[in-house]
């Protein structure tokens, strides 16, 4: 026992010396510290690369420098037709058609409305789960319990028989209520002045004019070029950060940039009267059976109930006219695709639309087998 203790005592200075050398090595300017090593091990590869942000123009790079099968992008753009842009790591790597041409993006506008809701919450104008009646006292009966969150998730029940939160309905009467409340009551200002304020989207430096344009009877829609809508997609991908400035709290994106509609929620089957007479945002009160398990804050999500099995789970999209105008964001690939064309009929799961979108994964990322 005594011999063992002596041996341990003799080894102790050596151990201390060895540990000291290790600590000095870690502190050396030529060595990586533990935090750096850990971050590089667990942070997705696209986040380790330097992401850039456009100024007056998108910086261009050849697709071949960032995508391993860049030629597949030609198949994608030829199949879609129309016009658009593809952004990778913040660089413009592909254009087709006229990426400067301004067009109306229809329901792809809706996530922009919800982004304005998040700005309003950040500015203390509203609470996301607050009741809309605080701004629209004209609401009656069950509709007095409608929240902004429910309007953004298509579960408000406005112009439907169901109570708020009790059913899902892709409902353009409710979207018109959402639109009118935000623009006329919450912000009470011109939509372009609202969105282009220096504390909101002003720093994005849109190239092709104002963002919103009014469509008679229906309301204000995003009316811009693919290359400018891609800036909004890049803003979403970076969770509200623009070139180092956190314009919109990252916490909002971590909380709301995911499905908000339970897969078990029923689809609305009972229409009711638009008693406010506000009209529709363009469509009917119950346009689609899709949305359960993959919708929220007016985005479509790929996690959970997969819309595009060939794309990564973190994919999300702003969608107009059921796949005519789309902004697709794939954070794990640092990829944004903004385009107007034929993205094939919208239908979750395997099919023509998924096969088309899968070309993006083949070109610029690892194609999933799920």
UniProtKB/TrEMBL annotation:
Q: Which Gene3D superfamilies match?
A: DD-peptidase/beta-lactamase superfamily
Q: Which UniProt keywords apply?
A: Hydrolase, Signal
Q: Which InterPro entries match?
A: Beta-lactam-related (IPR001466), Beta-lactam/transpept-like (IPR012338), Diverse_Enzym_Activities (IPR050789)
Give GO MF terms, alphabetically: hydrolase activity
Q: Which domain of life is it from?
A: Bacteria
Domain Beta-lactamase-related span(s) in chain numbering? 98-176
Cross-referenced SUPFAM superfamilies: beta-lactamase/transpeptidase-like
Presence of the UniProt keyword Transferase in the record: no
Which residues does UniProt assign to the signal peptide? 1-34
Keyword Transmembrane helix, does the record have it?
no
Q: What is this protein called?
A: CubicO group peptidase, beta-lactamase class C family
The organism is Candidatus Electrothrix aarhusensis
